[in-house]
Request: fold
Amino acid sequence: MALSLSIPGGPVQLSGNRVQAEVETTATTGELYNLLIKTTSLDASFPEGIDAIEPNAELKALFDLRNRVTLPIVYSFTWPLTGAVSIAQPQMAKKVALDVGERFVQVVSNKNEDTVNWAELTADNEILILRGGLSKHQQAKYNEQNTNFYDEFIAAGQFLTELPNNMRISPGQPVKLWFITKEVTNQALTLKVDYSLLSGSEGTLSHAVTIDPDKMYELCVDPGSLGLDASEVASYSVYFEKLGVTISATKSYTIDHGNYEHNTFLLYANRIGGIDCVWLHGHVKRSFPTESERSQRDARITDTQQRPTLEVDWKVGKRSWEINSGYKMADEMTALTGLFESRNVWLLDGNDIIPVMMEDGDNAYLDSLSDANEMELKFTEAH
Reply:
């Protein structure tokens, strides 16, 4: 009996969507025959797991491994900026190995024996898992189009960002892109930067980057990290080349040189495994709400003026922010839905990174009765 494995969603998948693997056998034997799949984290992020399913009439079994590969991802990004363009962030993408086998009962010397056999797979049996998940509607669209996250993003050379192309950015914004190669060997790539200056002149910069196929890469594509003077740049585009051939999508940015009193940068884990940065340039209100528990004691004849009868047993406070987004284009407002839904958000305050939680609410981001594409966002310190 020969066993084989196929991975319908491709070798890079999101933990929040179905992670499926199909095991097939050429024949069954014995009684209570089941096909097996073993899930192993290559860095011991989760315990080894084995699942069993009886094959169907076509001698196949389809396994859903989503619960097995829910990973304790530790998010990481570069701040303050160091000038580096490419930084490996291996903890944000976890490699999972799959082994296939069979289990059945057979009679040996008049006794029922439970037999387990494992196949020797040497290729195409690993999945790189990212923390994220497409919406049910997006999944339905992909199903209708006979495609998936891997084909649309990794195989297509897309950067793992949900922010729009030609986005307006602040000169000091820590713009980030995230990339995983579809290749199976280390790739020597060139990150190309085509730029236009306010003076009207144009140029191109190049940065050599080596990409390991088992890792997620953070790309710091703010003007400063790319070697540009943000005060002189009107717009720029970034993309990967290999031996002179473009092998990735192109992301373009326009620098907004307006004078804004407040500039707030928020980073958040997006739905496709990366971390996006948005710029808010409206007014900011800072608060420090507190909560406490109090108890009452009886007054004593020996009490002095300093001794209260109402005492605070405990008291705690958290920083909070109310931030206006400032005017944004419609596609930039629409992109904020990723921030609304994110479970991991960070506010940059000088060189500090502050984990925050966005308050739940209606989050009305566009209104056809108003041309004011802006909104109020409320955050509380996540400690």
The domain at 3-81+93-150 is CATH 2.60.40 (Immunoglobulin-like). The chain is about 5% helix and 45% strand. The helical segments are 136-144, 149-154, 330-335, 337-341.
